[in-house]
Design goal:
Layout: H1 2-11, H2 13-37, H3 43-76, H4 80-84, H5 91-119, H6 126-156, H7 159-181, E1 185-188, E2 191-194, E3 206-209, E4 212-215, H8 217-241
Antiparallel strand pairs: 1-2, 3-4
């Protein structure tokens, strides 16, 4: 798996570098605006900084979506699949390597984003870090859903049927998450306590209630379990349809 991981990282190096350049451009823009802001109190300067931050968030999300789709697509739909699946690597090792590369790229973007937000005067705290970990888990669920879609489309069903199945599966995951997390569990004085009604807890690492920030333990456990189940089915399909050994 180590050799394949190195191979996959090297094959994505151009994309990593182009993304880094894009963030450097945003960095230069942000520094320039802040420099102008240090000499003037114009309202437009603050608006420009906010606009750059919004662009940064948009670039982050779109880049991650593209990277996840592309990293699986090229190993299932292009000529590269012939080389990939001729390597002495198991289905589990293949999927693990893919998720590792995705998470490496995620944390690269997170690091660059934190640096940019730091320059704009926004600072991280422990709850921000917890939210990043929660987002990473959601990213892995999303990545596994993308891979499951591509595998079913490639090996099992017609695309129309695959789209319907994935839409139903996404609905099941997040509707289930909504109801399970409405009254999520959190730690209080070393004990697990059930929260009150919180409709947005299923997409939050924590919820602020009466000035207190409550860690959504239910949400973390639910999406970790979901990722493990999706991993199991992805590996099962890959084992049945491709000889990776």
């Amino acid at each position: 798996m180590r050799k394949y991981l190195k191979y996959d990282v090297k094959s994505n190096m151009k994309f990593f570098l182009s993304t880094f350049i894009c963030f450097v451009i945003l960095l230069v823009s942000l520094v320039s605006v802040r420099t102008i802001g240090s000499f003037t109190s114009l309202l437009e300067v603050g608006s420009a900084i906010n606009s750059i931050e919004i662009i940064l968030i948009g670039v982050f999300i779109m880049t991650m979506i593209y990277f996840v789709i592309n990293t699986f697509y090229k190993d299932l739909y292009t000529d590269r699949s012939i080389l990939t699946f001729s390597l002495p690597i198991s289905a589990r090792e293949f999927l693990t390597a893919k998720l590792l590369v995705i998470n490496i790229f995620f944390y690269l973007l997170v690091f660059l984003s934190i640096f940019l937000f730091y320059l704009s005067g926004r600072f991280m705290n422990i709850w921000s870090l917890i939210s990043i970990i929660f987002a990473m888990i959601i990213l892995n669920v999303f990545s596994l859903l993308i891979f499951l879609f591509m595998q079913m489309d490639r090996f099992l069903f017609k695309r129309k049927n695959t789209v319907i199945i994935i839409i139903l599966l996404i609905g099941l995951i997040f509707v289930g998450g909504f109801f399970l997390n409405r009254y999520f569990l959190f730690l209080s004085d070393g004990s697990l306590v059930r929260s009150g009604d919180n409709t947005l807890a299923f997409i939050s690492a924590y919820v602020k209630v009466s000035g207190r920030k409550l860690l959504n333990i239910t949400g973390f456990l639910y999406y970790i379990l979901t990722a493990l189940i999706l991993s199991f089915f992805n590996i099962k399909i890959l084992k049945n349809d491709l000889d990776l050994s």
